[in-house]
UniProtKB/TrEMBL annotation:
The keyword Zinc does not apply. Belongs to the major facilitator superfamily. Sugar transporter (TC 2.A.1.1) family. GO terms for cellular component: plasma membrane. Its main location: membrane. Pfam families: Sugar_tr (PF00083). This is Major facilitator superfamily (MFS) profile domain-containing protein.
Amino acid sequence: MVEGGIVKADRTEFTECFKTIGKTPFVMRLALSAGIGGLLFGYDTGVISGALLYIKEDFKEVEQKTWLQETIVSMAVAGAIIGAGLGGWLNDKIGRRPTIIIADVLFFIGAVIMSLAPAPWVIILGRIFVGLGVGMASMTSPLYISETSPSRIRGALVSTNGFLITGGQFFILPHQPWFHSGNVSYVLRVKGTWRWMLGVAAIPAFVQLILMLSLPESPRWLYRKEKVSEAEAIMAKIYPAEELEEEMKALKTSVDSEKAEDELVGGGNMLSKIKNAWGNRVFRRGLYAGVTVQVAQQFVGINTIMYYSPTIVQLAGIASKSTAMALSLITSGLNAVGSIVSMMFVDRYGRRRLMIISLFGIITCLIALAIVFYQAAAHAPRISVAESTHFGVNSTCPAFSNAQNPATWNCMTCLKSTSGCAFCANQGNELYPGACVSKTDDSKAECLKERRVYFTEGCPSKLGFLAVILLGAYIISYSPGMGTAPWIVNSEIYPLRYRGIGGGIAAVANWTANLIVSETFLTLTEALGSAGTFLLFAGFSIIGLILIYILVPETKGLPIEEVEHMLEKGFKPRLLGGEKKQENKVSES
């Protein structure tokens, strides 16, 4: 993100990038050092889904209380909302470099707190610290990179931050217990696996902290603070001598224009800026579109997949934690591939079209997932009285023992009856009738001793791997369209003088929607079932599709002035009375 918007790179820019960094390696040092913030961002969002499985083993209250699991996951998002707002203020007040350093300190403290946590509330505290760092880094790292990069390769270098975010999600691989073999595997399988997974984030945070202490401040920030000589000294390290004078003139022109725009929208008072911006009809219409795409991005349920994918895989009937985490990494891989696909096609086919196509795919996958989970629940293995009493009357789940019609129970009935029940699968075949047992360490040990499979989240099903395939199809549908286009739209939809305000409001809307979804997912699966929850997200996706069709114009290839003119007239899609000429102009520009 640069000056309120996303910088996009083309192939020529990437070619030029390799030439430039060969001559000026200092530029790459700046970009990679700041980009570690993206790595930390990606690692934190990727690691919690797997760590949660092991946290539940160490703290029984977490396993028994759905709201506690949701809070552990979502408190980082809550912290990120505050961190993003605080980061914006710190960026202007003390500079980009000190803000990144503060984010590193928060990351480091949060990782250490989580790794040493003696109780769930301490993990939550650590997640808040990490979230504050995530919020600051998510906006400051790309801003710092963009302001310390030569203009001709800025898009390519800022794009590295996005790759490092997905790289951070892959970085969880070496820290997963199933990844290792031999003695290392044995060490990591002991109690406290999640402590390693969460605590290791302190290492890159510390590395970035050391690196940033040796790097300069953004020349743009220095110039705005009238530290012209310092800004010029840094620019001299970034640009060849023959380009320096021209770039300093361009920087002066840009900063002077920015200061003039600040005065037009209310000076340094944020409330005055928002009030003046809201009085502008073009800004309001742009904000309707910008907030719509950001909220829709979250309410299609993407972060239920990113934060809870191993749990979802277990709900699909795959009990093994190792297998669940291995399969969940598919989502990170496909997400990374999708971001590359988006870079290739978003400027060719347009943002609006990609989002609409993406939503059709998302809706189809969510409905299919709802059907699969419904069928899996309806055809779950039956509960056998003989199997249930096989481990002793005291091991049988009390809810089953006291049931009026135990003959009607199946595995799903057992798991949903109370948080204290688990399903021990039939020894001969998981799909045959099994036992409804108390969810205790003793009953689990007895079940596993007989080489049976112990289920606490979902039930064994022939449809389990079909659910995994559909999760992959969902990511493939999401990533190239709804995954990236909303951020691009928000970099283009606002009048230039209101771009920072509009982008900031839309970003807060995105984080807030993220918090709502991540804080309620497990509660929804308990109340509505997995099938009902995915069907609910399909409904939200349909609403998002309708609103995007009505409110969001195509901004591909349009200068800011033309976007303003389009919003001034009022955008209408062709089926609702919009002009055919306008629609063609928008889609073909």
